Recover the amino acids of this structure.
């Protein structure tokens, strides 16, 4: 009987331990949820302008955080445009000009296809744990779900955003809402995610909304994931510059 | 003797001479006036650029190219010691250039953000309006064109976003402290001017600059440590090229005007030879050589140019003088169209311009007078006396 009580206490202690994750564990799990060994996804980017909205469909092939290839499928004006990211370099192929250009320096600040995302935003997908120092600010309930509020401050130089505040769902371990701040503390952008689904043993959102908070009356950009496949085999040839022209 | 006959014949032709002289004088006036306008434009543009931007010249950071904003982020460093000494002696001032995004009324717009010393007095810009605003986060000076594009007024605030030296985004509120009415569009369109020390701290580029503009007469630096010396001739060459590129259009018009005048004279000469056959025959019968007769007719035509010059002076001189003194008010502001143009354009009449235009018009008139007169050489005096025209 005593043994049983000790076992129950010990088990309860272990369960309690797992619920009290460290800040580092939370960030790492969040990174693991968002990043994968590889992924292939089809998505729609809905760019809401002042007067009208545009929808751009694309297919992405991603390996880790270093290699990504995107092909735009529609509308006809954008169809055939391809982007290749290798480490910190980004190339774009435009079928209209039949040219491959490298996006670098200040061009990385430009918006992607007129959306609220910049090339820099796409480029910075290294794990948060490597880039930011996290501080737990507290917990909050949003729409009946428990969230941690995490303040992330840059620990390496050269990041676009000096500070981020993330509302991380305690069950999904995903940043349901994120605020991106300038060095001065001014809010620059926000991103939210919803439509969380369990895909291949991980929670993953089916819709992101990015918004440039400095633009007044801006309605933001939606990124809707139509289909995603994790840890598939992607041939290395997919990430060659020659592939851009094919 | 010849000149007397020529004048007598010319005056005898009355209306024909008046029309020829008037057309030639009008062409003369327009060519002179338009060339003077171009010279005036160039001179004004040069003067404004030197006053507001170039002063004596500049030293550029090796990576700086004003036409390539993508390279601005690499075009900055501390000043070489000799250039720094010019700055310390107040004979030069540094400018730090960077790209920024501004959000006037919540709309995003790209801008070139330039940090300048508010107390500089080397170029004619109201930079002193940037000083003494300790209560304002970022005091901003903009031009009239930029104010119109962004719909900003003095006292308005707007967000400025930039990337610092580490390529991290930063943003703060800028407040318009002054709107300058400057003719140099290069300092106005797409530009925001802020105090240098503020821009250095915002960009984390303490004591750094992109270029240094020096006063006229400042000693030239030899140890520039890679910084590139740009003299006035280099800095105004783009503007000269723009004006030069526009000249062929004007030259086509000169040709048309000259052709009009030449055709009038040519026509008058041909008609004279047809109608004055008996006179030509009599002159030759009385012993005048053919060459002298040709000379007489050419002289008659040539006198048109002389009379045209006098007519230009009498009839169009006062107009040229009036425009030369008061200028011509332009109906629109060309600054917004990317041109350095005065609100009143003053033509400049140089001696070279007047002499070259006179010579050009005279040569053209002489040639068109001579060509029909050559036919006289083929005339027989007997036929001419009978009034037979030249074939």
């Amino acid at each position: 009987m005593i043994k049983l009580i000790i076992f129950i206490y010990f088990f309860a202690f272990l369960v309690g331990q797992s619920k009290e994750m460290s800040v580092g564990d939370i960030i790492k799990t969040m990174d693991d949820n968002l990043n994968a060994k590889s992924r292939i996804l089809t998505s729609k980017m809905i760019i809401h302008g002042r007067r009208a909205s545009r929808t751009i469909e694309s297919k992405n092939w991603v390996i880790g955080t270093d290699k990504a290839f995107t092909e735009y499928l529609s509308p006809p004006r954008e169809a055939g445009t391809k982007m290749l990211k290798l480490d910190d370099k980004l190339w774009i192929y435009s079928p209209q000009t039949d040219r491959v250009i490298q996006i670098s320096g200040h061009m990385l600040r430009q918006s992607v296809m007129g959306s609220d995302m910049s090339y820099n935003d796409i480029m910075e997908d290294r794990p948060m744990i490597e880039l930011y120092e996290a501080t737990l600010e507290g917990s909050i309930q949003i729409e009946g779900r428990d969230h941690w509020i995490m303040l992330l401050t840059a620990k390496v130089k050269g990041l676009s955003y000096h500070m981020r505040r993330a509302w991380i769902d305690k069950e999904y371990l995903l940043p349901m809402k994120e605020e991106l701040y300038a060095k001065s503390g001014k809010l620059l952008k926000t991103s939210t995610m919803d439509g969380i689904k369990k895909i291949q043993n991980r929670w993953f959102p089916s819709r992101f909304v990015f918004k440039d908070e400095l633009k007044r009356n801006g309605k933001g950009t939606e990124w809707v994931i139509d289909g995603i496949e994790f840890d598939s085999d992607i041939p290395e040839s997919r990430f060659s510059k020659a592939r851009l022209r094919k | 003797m010849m000149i007397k006959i020529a004048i007598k014949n010319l005056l005898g032709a009355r209306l024909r001479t008046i029309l020829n002289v008037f057309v030639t004088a009008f062409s003369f006036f327009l060519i002179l006036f338009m060339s003077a306008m171009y010279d005036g434009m160039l001179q004004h543009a040069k003067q404004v650029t030197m006053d507001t931007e170039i002063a004596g010249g500049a030293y550029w950071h090796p990576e700086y190219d004003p036409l390539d904003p993508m390279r601005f982020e690499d075009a900055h460093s501390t000043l070489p010691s000799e250039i720094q000494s010019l700055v310390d002696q107040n004979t030069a001032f540094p400018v730090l250039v960077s790209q920024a995004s501004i959000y006037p009324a919540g709309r995003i717009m790209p801008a070139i953000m330039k940090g300048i010393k508010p107390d500089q007095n080397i170029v004619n810009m109201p930079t002193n309006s940037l000083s003494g605003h300790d209560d304002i986060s970022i005091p901003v000076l903009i031009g009239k064109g930029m104010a119109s594009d962004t719909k900003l007024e003095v006292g308005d605030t707007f967000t400025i976003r930039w990337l610092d030296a580490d390529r991290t985004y930063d943003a703060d509120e800028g407040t318009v402290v002054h709107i300058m009415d400057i003719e140099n569009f290069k300092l106005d369109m797409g530009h925001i001017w802020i105090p240098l020390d503020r821009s250095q701290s915002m960009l984390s580029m303490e004591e750094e600059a992109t270029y240094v503009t020096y006063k006229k007469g400042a000693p030239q630096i030899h140890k520039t440590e890679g910084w590139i010396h740009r003299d006035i001739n280099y800095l105004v060459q783009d503007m000269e090229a723009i004006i030069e590129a526009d000249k062929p259009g004007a030259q086509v018009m000169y040709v048309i005007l000259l052709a009009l005048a030449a055709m009038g004279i040519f026509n008058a000469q041909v008609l004279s030879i047809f109608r004055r056959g008996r006179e030509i025959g009599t002159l030759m019968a009385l012993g005048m050589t053919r060459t002298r007769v040709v000379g007489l007719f050419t002289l008659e035509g040539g006198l048109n140019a002389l009379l045209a010059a006098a007519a230009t002076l009498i009839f169009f001189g006062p107009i040229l003088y009036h425009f030369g003194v008061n200028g011509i008010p332009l109906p629109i502001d060309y600054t917004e169209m990317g041109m350095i143009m005065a609100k009143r354009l003053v033509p400049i009449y140089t001696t070279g311009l007047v002499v070259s235009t006179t010579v050009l018009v005279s040569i053209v008139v002489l040639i068109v007078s001579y060509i029909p007169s050559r036919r006289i050489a083929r005339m027989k005096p007997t036929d001419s006396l009978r009034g037979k025209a030249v074939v």
The two ends of chain A are 72 Å apart (CA to CA). The first strand of chain A starts at residue 38 and ends at 48. Chain A touches chain B at residues 105-107, 109, 154, 157-162, 182-184, 186, 188, 212, 214-218 (CB under 8 Å). Confidence is low (pLDDT under 50) at residues 4-18 of chain A.
